[in-house]
Amino acid sequence: MGLVVLSSLAAVLFAGASTSAPNSAPAPCKFSGVPAHSFNASCAALAKSISIENVTVNFAEYVPAGTTIMFPNADPSCARPSQAVPSDLCRVNMHVSTTNVSGIVLESWLPKDWTGRFLSTGNGGLGGCIQFEDMAYTIGQGFAVVGANNGHDGRSGKAFLNSPEVIADFAYRSIHTGVVVGKQITKEFYGTKHKKSYYLGCSTGGRQGFKSVQDFPYDFDGVVAGAPALDFNNLNAWSNHFYLITGKNTSASFVPIPLWTKVHTEILNQCDGFDGLKDGIIEDPSLCNFNASALLCARTDSTDCLTSAQVNTVTEVFSGLYGQDGALVYPRMQPGSELSAAGFYYGGLPSPFTDWYAYAILGNPNWDSATMTLADIAYADKKNPSNIKTWKSDLSPFQAAGGKILHYHGMQDPIITSDNSARYYDLVSKTMRKSPAQLDQFYRYFRIGGMGHCSGGPGAWEIGQTTVGTSALTSQDNVLMRIVDWVENGAAPETIRGTKYVNDTASLGVQFVRDHCRYPRRNVYNGKGDPTKATSWNCK
Q1: How far is CA 191 from CA 114, 178, 186, in A?
Q2: 298 FRET partner, CA 20 to 30 A, in 102, 287, 418, 540?
């Protein structure tokens, strides 16, 4: 049977943008103050009233605040068996066919106390996992929210094998389809259009946010994109290439995990003071040109130092990956991330993300990542299925539509080097011929010192990016509320405040607070104030 692109959504899905600019009219919620039984009845009626071609409603149900929703049929690899919800909501579960051989599972969560705002969540890794925790977080802030499985179930890439339409869903179509359908359902349920539309995602979710900015400039008024997996094919090559550097754990080039602690200590010795304070956090790793030879063993019987082969391994880890033509494929891993990155990439095992090459690029489930060549890397970049590279650098249509981008990246990210975010920002600046001051009008990038991949780390990483990272709901302390403030009130963020709790536990109290700077500025300690206070740091 030949491929059929299903008709009702096709014109919107392939037009390159939504058919009209987002509506900015106020949207008062008709359910404010109504009793629960009335809201329940409206939710039940919604399941019968939805009539969108290619959309099959599996169920619509009222979920009271405090309920823990169970997901008995979820793929175990998603590790999301349940989710507590903070607000009364109408939960709609659907299947949306995107072609005759592909489709997405879509959930729309519609809160009783709606602010008039619409939001789409993203995904992570290669996964087809709805991020219910992000849906719960954002409905708690009054957004009507959608989340999808990205066109396949589970965290594996096996569904990509010989399935270009499944790849298309993963690359771009799942998010855009969810936005198109979700906005229609939101309007039908509340009886009015949303007033503003937002996006919140990190990692693959960050890439999805930028894909929307690049190809569908009217989908969102405000985008929060964290640690984006941009230049996606080359990112996967870079992730794979660490195995080629370290070798197996029996190789002379292999650096045992305990020795990476020594490497980390020496990196801090060489680079931690550049921001004016030695506190275990490198605020600007771009200033750190680590010299691994400082750890070279003086004697052959030493065990707490590096052999010459190991020095070479560490040096290569912190060097960029270059292709057949000598051009940069992907920038270096930023120094400071090695304690966590050792477990992901330097353990003498293949990358956990080899499925993209095996199933989507080479179509060979038995592919051995130890055989990856520069020719393979060039082939993947050229093949670029569904333009998943996500590397367009002229964002003029999104700017013209009035959109705003809040981009952040942790400076100790062990999975996607933060150097790539600066690389993309600089490319946008060059392509659009705009200085950082001019880009500030619609696109601001914040470097989060001491944050790992999307969350965690020794720094003030809790910035309101998800439930885990919620510190406060004021716009200065919360990136989600900050993008709302920028879009709706014109209050552009000068800094993003991060909080570090004792043992990352809010109930134990605040350890320190820091205001993170927008690129290309960097955080510097003033040398005299209490370093746990944000006022003791300046952006320079």
Answers
A1: 12, 19, 8
A2: 287
Q: How far is CA 309 from the centre of its chain?
A: 35
Cβ density class 303-325: b for 16+ within 10 Å, e for less: eebbbeebbebbebbbeebebee
Task: Record the tokens describing residue 99, joined without a space.
Answer: 């072609």
Instruction: Kindly list the catalytic residues.
Output: 203, 413, 453
According to DSSP, residue 20 is labeled S
pLDDT given for residue 42 in this prediction = 96
Cα angle at 109 between 397 and 488, to 5 degrees? 40
Q: Are 136 and 337 in contact (CB under 8 A)?
A: no
Q: How would residue 8 be classed by pLDDT, with cut points 50, 70 and 90? A: very low
| One-letter identity of residue 75 | D
Start-end of H helices in 54-160: 132-139
pLDDT confidence bin for 500, thresholds 50/70/90: very high
DSSP three-state, residue 196 = strand
- Per-residue pLDDT at 469: 59
Each residue's pLDDT tens digit, 417-472: 999 999 999 999 999 999 999 999 999 999 999 999 999 999 999 999 977 656 56
349 or 475, which is more confident: 349
Show the DSSP H helices in 272-335 as ranges.
308-317
Query: pTM higher than 0.70, yes or no?
Result: yes
3-state secondary structure of 106: strand
Q: How far apart are CA 236 and CA 352, in angstroms?
A: 10
What distance in Å separates the CA atoms of residue 91 and residue 106, rounded to the nearest whole number?
A: 11
Distance CA 511, CA 490 (A): 32
pLDDT digits (tens, 9 = 90+) for 301-330: 677 899 999 999 999 999 999 999 999 999
- Please measure the distance between the N-terminal and C-terminal CA atoms of the chain and give it in whole angstroms: 61
- Cα 528 to its chain centre, rounded Å, is 36
What is the gyration radius of the CA atoms in the chain, in angstroms? 23
pLDDT tens readout for residues 363-386: 999 999 999 999 999 999 999 999
Is there a contact between 411 and 448 (Cβ–Cβ < 8 Å)? yes
Nearby residues of 221 by Cβ (< 8 Å), 6 or more positions away: 22, 196, 197, 198, 402, 403, 404, 487
Contact yes or no for 181/148 (Cβ under 8 A) = no
How far is residue 359's CA from residue 366's CA, in Å, rounded to a whole number? 9
Q: What are phi and psi of 317, to 5 degrees?
A: -60, -40
Strand-pair partners of 330 = 321
Between CA 534 and CA 460 the distance in angstroms is 10
Contact 23, 195 (CB under 8 A): yes
Phi, psi of 98 (to 5 degrees): -100, -30
> 313 near 254, Cβ under 8 Å?
yes
Q: Which residues contact 47 (CB under 8 A, 6 or more apart)?
A: 57, 59, 60, 92
**What is the model's pLDDT at position 23?**
41
* Cβ neighbours, 10 Å, residue 273: 13
